[in-house]
Amino acid sequence: MPAQIIDGKQIAQQIRSELAAEVAEFIENNAATPCLAAVLVGEDPASQVYVRNKERACEAAGMVSKLFRLPAETTQDELLSLIAKLNKDAEVHGILVQLPLPPQIDSERVLRAIHPSKDVDAFHPENVGLMTLGKPRFLPCTPHGVLQLLKRSGVETAGKRAVVVGRSDIVGKPMTLLLAQKGWDATVTIAHSRTTDLAAVCREADVLVAAVGRPEMITGDMIKPGAAVIDVGINRVDNGTPKGKLVGDVAYDAAAEVAGWITPVPGGVGPMTIAMLLHNTLTAAAAIER
Ligand code: GUN
């Protein structure tokens, strides 16, 4: 039987309409509207698209979106002073600095400057720590989106083997921790570029999360029959057209013949990241206005 396709676009839309109702209720009960400030430094085309999508999604959910566009040659001090201003601005509930930042800017320093109560990406060490302790203020958007895809598609994780391929701070590491936490209860392995016999490790997975950033690296023979395969990768590859083609970290067609569930690229995890960002912005607003 071919895999069930997990439609991230549809699930994200469902979450966004649930959030829109909660935002309307929030506005009725508070003298404030949830507000996300997004900061974009430079002209990176992919970042421009991401930020525009985040703005539109905010507005569609009834939230306020404020975009701060800074030139590519912005200095670290200039960016830090904008963040200090946004930290103090009572109308701003969430702050997002789009990554990557230009090379003259120390990203770590910038992310640490965002007040943890407004850190809707959940990248600040305080928020990483709280999540690690099982007491999250915010969950990081992409791993949280993956959990929602699993839950809303009826994929059981308790007692199952999960393998996360990739050990990034943004996806791999938090994904591993969250899948192992109470409520999700998976037995989790974190694999990466130095893993010996990656194929054999992947074949043990009832839930396989691919977040390595290498186009179609996970092939059909690496998948356990019936597994849930979640593809976090978004890679642009040359297919002879000017824009190229978007592919995931999983070789989709071959994987779909073996897997029980699979997420497409695009239209899988991507839309969920934005939905969870909106969720965090509403959480931030509720905590600040309380
Ligand atoms: N660049 C790529 N993904 C992300 C993300 O989730 N948050 C931010 N701020 N920048 C990104």
UniProtKB/TrEMBL annotation:
Q: Which positions fall inside the Tetrahydrofolate dehydrogenase/cyclohydrolase catalytic domain?
A: 6-121
Q: Which UniProt keywords apply?
A: Amino-acid biosynthesis, Histidine biosynthesis, Hydrolase, Methionine biosynthesis, Multifunctional enzyme, NADP, One-carbon metabolism, Oxidoreductase, Purine biosynthesis
Q: Name one GO cellular component term.
A: cytosol
**Substrates-to-products reaction catalysed:** (6R)-5,10-methenyltetrahydrofolate + H2O = (6R)-10-formyltetrahydrofolate + H(+); (6R)-5,10-methylene-5,6,7,8-tetrahydrofolate + NADP(+) = (6R)-5,10-methenyltetrahydrofolate + NADPH
| Residues annotated as domain Tetrahydrofolate dehydrogenase/cyclohydrolase NAD(P)-binding | 140-286
The GO biological-process annotations, alphabetized, read as: L-histidine biosynthetic process; methionine biosynthetic process; purine nucleotide biosynthetic process; tetrahydrofolate interconversion
Q: Which residues bind NADP(+)?
A: G166, R167, S168, I234
Pfam families per the UniProt record, alphabetical: THF_DHG_CYH (PF00763), THF_DHG_CYH_C (PF02882)
Asked if the keyword Transferase belongs to this entry, the reply reads: no
Record's signal peptide:
none
Q: Which GO terms describe its molecular function?
A: methenyltetrahydrofolate cyclohydrolase activity; methylenetetrahydrofolate dehydrogenase (NADP+) activity
The pathway it acts in is: One-carbon metabolism; tetrahydrofolate interconversion
Enzyme Commission designation = 1.5.1.5, 3.5.4.9
Q: Which family does it belong to?
A: Belongs to the tetrahydrofolate dehydrogenase/cyclohydrolase family.
Matching entries from PANTHER family are given as: C-1-TETRAHYDROFOLATE SYNTHASE, CYTOPLASMIC, C-1-TETRAHYDROFOLATE SYNTHASE, CYTOPLASMIC-RELATED
Which HAMAP family does this UniProt record tie to the protein?
A: THF_DHG_CYH (MF_01576)
* Assembly, per entry: Homodimer.
Role noted for this protein: Catalyzes the oxidation of 5,10-methylenetetrahydrofolate to 5,10-methenyltetrahydrofolate and then the hydrolysis of 5,10-methenyltetrahydrofolate to 10-formyltetrahydrofolate.
| Name this protein carries in UniProt | Bifunctional protein FolD
Taxon lineage:
Bacteria, Pseudomonadati, Planctomycetota, Planctomycetia, Pirellulales
